[in-house]
TrEMBL record, chain A:
Domain of life the protein comes from: Archaea
Organism from which the protein derives: Candidatus Methanoperedens nitratireducens
Protein name: Uncharacterized protein
Record's keyword terms, sorted: Membrane, Transmembrane, Transmembrane helix
Membrane-spanning residues: 12-30, 36-59
From TrEMBL, chain B:
PANTHER family according to UniProt: HYDROGENASE-4 COMPONENT F, NADH-UBIQUINONE_PLASTOQUINONE
Keyword Metal-binding: no
Domain NADH:quinone oxidoreductase/Mrp antiporter transmembrane: 111-379
Source organism of this protein record: Candidatus Methanoperedens nitratireducens
Protein name: Formate hydrogenlyase subunit 3/multisubunit Na+/H+ antiporter, MnhD subunit
Amino acid sequence: MDNININIKTLRYLFYASLVIVVLADFFIHREKIEFFWDAIPGFSALYGLVSSILLIIVSKAIGHKLLLRKEDYYD
Amino acid sequence: MIEWVPPAAIMIVGAFLIPLLKGKVKQAYLLLLPLIVFINLLYMGEGTGWVIPFMEYSLIFGQVDKLSMAFGYVFVIMAFIGILYALHIRESGQHFAAFMYVGSALGVVFAGDFFSLFVFWEIMAFSSVFLIWYNKEKASRDAGLRYLLVHVAGGLSLLAGIIIRLVNTGSIEFGPIDFGSLDSYLILLGFMLNAAVPPLHAWLSDAYPEATVTGAVFLSAFTTKTAVYVLLRAFLGVEILIWLGAFMAVFGVVYALLQNDIRRLLAYEIISQVGYMVAGVGMGTILAVNGSTAHAFTHILYKGLLFMCAGAVIHMAGKRKLTELGGLYKTMPITLGLYMIGALSISALPFFSGFVSKSMVVSAAAHEHLAVVWLLLTLASAGTFLIAALRLPYFVFFARDAGIKAKEPPVNMLLAMGLAAFLNILIGVYPAILYGILPYPVDYVPYTGEHIVWALQILLFTALGFFLLLGKLGGEHAISLDTDWFYRKGSRSFMWFVEKPLSAASQWPVDILMRLKDYLIWLGKNPTQAIFLYAGTIVFKILGRFPGMPPHASERILEEGWSNYPGEPVRKSPVGDSVILVLIFMTAYAIYYYFVS
């Protein structure tokens, strides 16, 4: 059990490290084509990914609870 | 001369032999048939073959070009994988339905005319529904029937479009269609229904989760991708498809987040992924067409893999909901590993198949400077990773231990899953084999530093969002309403309307005539007295008494008259009764005649 906890802890640090590394890398990467203005902003896609996921979860669940979700026997 | 045969013919004719075979021979035959079709594919040269005169038209069973070949290859590969996955099933009927379904899908892909296309289109619906019905539960029977009815309706729209087109142009050739006339709208509607474009999508998420474990694998591959193929051939550059596709991609993700049933979750993910392909059709550029084709190709492989792994969980654990599952990583680690390969492919992680195909469509949107479309498709990418690669595996294989005693699935299932996983990685690592068979020469390089860093940022920070909001993401004991509500509840309103107001309304004339009959019988007992009674009542109402009589006595006489009716019929003059009746009818006739003339 202890082993698993240590592993999870290690994984968590690795995960945080990879977040930092990938954003740092975006500052140094060579950009060949810029189609939209945000293509030039380092870390934009990190921000967009984070905002997207949080927005999707909150909005979907809100729509679900306000409007769409019914008991499982609703159609029976 | 022609040294190849239409693949549909081999598949469909071959399917009829299945019920005659048994045991190992049957298993060998099932695996052999897709192999024969594949070898046959390799001999098919581009051009138009198998043109068969039919009345004054030509049926074309072999319209072969790079587009139809790309779909042909992946359909046959998936047929092999799917049948390997289903090899342990003894019922010949299921295999027969599956091969009829694959065969008719191949028929659509190589059809060069609308007649044969329509016939194959209908065989697809009528054979695939058995993959749902073979699950033999009430939910499956009901969902299968709804699936069939919806597809028949879509087929009718397509047929109406084909007939109008034939009348207007005199041609049944299947090719690019000018968008803007009634026939093009009807045909597009039929195609969009099979592509599961909202609001015509609910048949998919309604029926696929109720199919058999092995049937759902076939279903996930063929119907929607056949629809993408016909859209690519007929409706390139129809702008509304860009927006419908982008909407679809996000719509599927939003609904997938609400699902508790693992295969229903994956079904909504199909809708989301087909959204990319539909958007690609709408853009219609070379990059977009290549992207849609490539994405259909990889989608069949990774979605088939996901459905196989979800099916393996359902098959071995006997449960199908996130709320009932959990902790399976201990007992089904191989399934988990293979599932993750499919999940990372659909999420477009670098070195997995989705990365080299989905990004073509997204890049096509960027090249066209469609900023909103690009943002929506990227949003849907984040959502896909969130749901398919994090939410589902977390709650099925980790989270709380549900204490389910499950083992790894049978070896044929594992082999099929392994083969699909291998192909997904192969395409991801070595995209040239996929790019080589696309409709146009590919001038696209997926593996650039900026693209990899871009994708990793999106995915890793989506994972961060997942862990931050993990508490909100578990399955819920609920189902979500969708557009199938209109026919599932709507049919009930219809039945209520038939049973209550409509049948009551049909009863009214009967009631009225029955009362009229009763009245005439009553009147016939003593018409003379009845008329005197009516006359007396009218006089009494007006004057308050009879002439020459006090009111009190008048009232008593009248009451006695009514209560004694018919009393002793006045037999003094039976002729008189007849005369009075004749007079009544003649008066009625005179009045009628007066007004009519």
